[in-house]
Write a structure and sequence with these properties.
The protein is an all-alpha fold. The chain has a domain of about 90 residues: Serine Threonine Protein Phosphatase 5, Tetratricopeptide repeat, CATH 1.25.40. The chain contains 11 helices and no strands. The longest helix has 19 residues. It is globular and about 60 Å long.
């Protein structure tokens, strides 16, 4: 965010693509910092520019990020509208996999919050497949954790373990602090099933917690790609494969 603030002085000297990238990144960072109202203001400045200049990848990303802001503010109807509006640009995208994976992940999380597990599972499964196609480990990690939580809430423990296990391996490779949360989720999965594995993951969770407190090399990495208010409204259709 500090780097973006320094660059903002030179915004008028940059081409449209670079300006839109800056707006997109700033909005994503605001959401990460839970400054959702600021993210919305930032996106509103950029959406019209993206549509007028026909930068459709940015249109898709900005509308999806706007949906994330509203979802996190608890305005689920507005979030759905934003995710569905983003999807209308899908056939014009240069990025056919990663941006849709972002959209499906957030849409899946939304339906999980609304306790519609069927739709949540549908979109999150598609998000995992798409992120695997482009070998984007961190987007895959995010989708798999959400899918694992979806399975866990439905007491589909075997399926949840599979998702958390794959996500944990990605987290370990990328040194993300998400690994700590995943270890706790795996411990919860094994709590009443396998004492040895329960203790294994609980010990790893403890180890990572201590490492994090001591300022170890446990840092969060985010991957940024070039980087209807009723239940029957238009919904994006996940790919079949």
């Amino acid at each position: 965010m500090k780097a973006l603030e320094r660059m903002w002085t030179y915004l008028s000297e940059m081409d449209t693509e670079t300006q839109l990238t800056m707006y997109s990144l700033q909005a994503i960072l605001h959401n990460e910092l839970k400054n959702h109202d600021e993210a919305i203001l930032c996106i509103n400045k950029a959406i019209d520019m993206a549509q007028r200049s026909k930068h459709f990848d940015h249109c898709f990303e900005l509308w999806t990020t706007l949906g994330v802001s509203y979802k996190n503010l608890g305005d689920f109807d507005s979030a759905k509208t934003c995710f569905n509006t983003a999807y209308r640009f899908k056939n014009k995208l240069r990025d056919k996999y990663l941006l849709p994976a972002y959209n499906y992940t957030e849409l899946g999380k939304l339906y999980k919050q609304l306790n519609n597990m069927e739709l949540a599972e549908k979109y999150l499964t598609s998000a995992v497949k798409l992120s695997k196609k482009v070998n984007n480990g961190l987007k895959q990690l995010e989708a798999q954790v959400a899918l694992g939580e979806c399975f866990f809430q439905q007491n589909k423990i075997t399926e949840a373990i599979q998702q958390f296990d794959e996500a944990g391996k990605i987290a370990e490779r990328h040194f993300t602090k998400k690994e700590k949360d995943i270890m706790l989720k795996l411990a919860q999965c094994y709590e009443k099933r396998d004492t040895v594995k329960y203790n294994k993951y609980l010990s790893r969770f403890y180890e990572l917690s201590i490492k994090s407190q001591n300022g170890g090399e446990l840092t969060m990495h985010q991957s940024y790609s070039n980087n209807t208010h009723a239940e029957r409204e238009f919904q994006p259709e996940p790919p079949d494969d």
